[in-house]
Every structure is written in structure tokens, then in C-alpha cells.
Design brief:
With about 300 residues, this protein is an alpha/beta fold. Helix content is about 35%, strand content about 20%. Strands 1, 2, 3, 4, 5, 6, 7, 8 and 9 form a 9-stranded mixed beta sheet that branches.
């Protein structure tokens, strides 16, 4: 019996390898604390990377609170298959697809009451049975914390390009974000950078910047822990309604401070010099391991950007 389980596990590993080998960069987006806007960041980075011409997939591994589909405006879509075995991800637009457990739930109000082993199996199935195809990016949205979901992703994708950690300036959020930094280091996964979300609220009346959650917490943490700060994203009232309605905030037709900040971050991830692509974390923050240096990189990093 044990041999059969082991063989089945290895067979799934082979299928995961075959899927992931067709994907350029696999990035896990984390937050130590809930409510910091991690899914907001994931969805809008995916939109912007797709607008840059990249082929992007988004995997929602927040199994107990899968909200990615709603933010993309495709929560009413159903899963389909060509052969009855593999699963087709839901298309958001021509070069942007998404997979979420929410597509398989008949009742959106039904709680997902699963132990760790079931969650691990579901995530591995998303990686092995979904026809992701050839992608430039797979953004993996995870729930808050450093538990089963994050560990499963790291173990199932040993060549994971890196992690992006989302926080707010609030000391309580920073305390938990530091754990995400140390989780990445313990797992030997490079830290692409930290995004400070909800950095301030610009008063719609006078234009004053109001630091609702404090000021400079993300920048201070990055300095202390020697990780890149990818950017600071302000709060905006209309962003909330855009997410609830499944609208593309990055393409609203007018300039929003939060959208501009996220565009700059997406550009830094795709073309910049701040983030690391190597699992050898001794290279973190050095020019020898940045996206723009990938072409001449001499490391054996399997996630080099071609």
C-alpha cells in the first residue's frame, strides 16, 4: 500500500514537472497577516503584466477564501476539460488565465472545511492537471501565513522563481511579514521583494496624504532585513468598488495613484534590477542576480528569464 501511494505521488510530481517546465517564472505572493491586500496586488500585477504582452496565469491557493475569480469578474464561469482528465483554466482575456477552487463550488457561501492533507492534494492537482500551457508568469496567490499552502507550493515547485511579500505599514502587519521573509529564506527561495500596500490615503477633499496604518514600516523592515522594497501603493476608495465589481483597475481610463504604483512595480518585476531570480539567496540584492542580468547569468538557476 505504501509503495502504491509513493508511486502515485511521484507520478503527480512528473506531471507537475511537465506543466511547470513550460512556464517561465513561477512567483508566490505571500502575506504574513490577512487583510493587507495581497489578492488585490496579485490581480492587478497580473493585469499589468498581461498588458505588457506577457502570457500570465494566476493560481488561487487560498482555498478557504478564494476571491481571485470575483476580482477578475469571472466568478460565474465553470470549469471545462477537453479530455475529461485535464482541466482548462478560465480565460480572463487573451493572454491571462486563472484557476481557483471557487469555480468548483456549487454554493459560494459553502465553507471549505479541509485538513492539511486535502489542501495539499488540491494544490498539487491544480499544478498537475490544469492545462496552463506556455506562460511567461504563473502568479500563485496564497492565504495569509506560512503554513500548508505555502509549504506545498515550495515543495511541488523546487525551481520556484521567488516570493513577493505584501504588507501594510502597520507594526502588527510588519511583524507577520518578517515571518514570511524568514520562511522564504528557510525554504531557500529567493525574495523578489516587498510591496507596502495601503501606504496612505489621499484625502479626496484636500489632497493630504493620511497615513492610516502608520508610515514607513515596510521601508524600515526592508532595510533591516536586507530585502528589496518594490514599491508603496496608496489606498483609494474607488479601488474597493472596482474589485467588488470585477473591473480592471489598471485600465480605468484615468490615472490613479495606486494603479501607477502597481504599474511601476510590474515593470520592475519584468524588467528591473531590484529582484532576484536565483534560489541561491546569497545573491539577493546584487546586480549578478537581477532580471536584466539573466541573459548573461552563469548560475544554474532553472528560472532564468530567456
Amino acid at each position: 500500500m505504501a509503495d502504491e501511494v509513493r508511486d502515485e505521488y511521484e507520478e503527480v510530481n512528473k506531471k507537475i514537472r511537465a506543466r511547470m517546465d513550460k512556464i517561465g517564472r513561477k512567483i508566490m505572493i505571500m502575506s504574513g497577516k490577512g487583510g493587507v491586500g495581497k489578492t488585490t496586488v496579485t490581480v492587478n500585477l497580473a493585469y499589468e503584466l498581461a498588458k505588457m504582452g506577457c502570457k500570465v496565469g494566476v493560481l488561487d491557493t487560498d482555498l478557504h477564501g478564494p476571491n481571485v475569480a470575483k476580482m477578475f469578474g469571472v466568478e460565474d464561469k465553470s470549469l471545462s476539460s477537453r479530455d475529461g482528465v485535464t482541466i482548462l483554466p478560465v480565460k480572463v482575456r487573451e493572454n491571462l488565465v486563472v484557476m481557483s477552487l471557487s469555480f468548483a463550488l456549487e454554493d459560494p457561501d459553502a465553507p471549505v472545511i479541509w485538513r492539511g492533507s486535502l489542501k495539499m492534494s488540491a494544490i498539487r492537482q491544480f499544478l498537475s492537471d490544469v492545462e496552463w500551457g506556455e506562460l511567461d508568469y504563473l502568479l500563485i496567490d496564497t492565504p495569509p501565513g506560512t503554513g500548508d499552502e505555502q509549504l506545498t507550493v515550495c515543495q511541488a515547485i523546487p525551481e520556484l522563481t521567488g516570493t513577493i511579500i505584501v504588507t501594510t505599514p502597520q507594526p502588527v502587519a510588519i511583524l507577520d511579514a518578517r515571518k514570511s521573509v524568514n520562511f522564504s529564506r528557510k525554504m531557500g527561495v529567493a525574495i523578489i521583494g516587498v510591496i507596502e500596500n495601503m501606504s496612505y490615503l489621499r484625502c479626496p477633499g484636500c489632497g493630504e496624504e493620511i497615513p492610516i496604518f502608520g508610515k514607513g514600516g515596510g521601508r524600515k523592515m526592508c532595510s533591516e532585513m536586507h530585502v528589496p522594497l518594490l514599491g508603496e501603493v496608496p489606498m483609494e476608495i474607488d479601488l474597493r468598488s472596482a474589485e467588488d465589481e470585477g473591473k480592471d483597475w489598471m485600465d480605468e481610463g484615468i490615472s490613479h495613484p495606486s494603479a501607477e504604483a502597481l504599474k511601476a512595480i510590474a515593470n520592475e518585476i519584468n524588467n528591473g534590477t531590484a529582484c532576484s531570480t536565483s534560489r541561491d539567496t546569497s545573491f539577493l540584492g546584487t546586480p549578478s542576480c537581477s532580471p536584466s542580468a539573466c541573459a548573461s547569468c552563469t548560475s544554474n538557476c532553472p528560472s532564468r528569464k530567456k
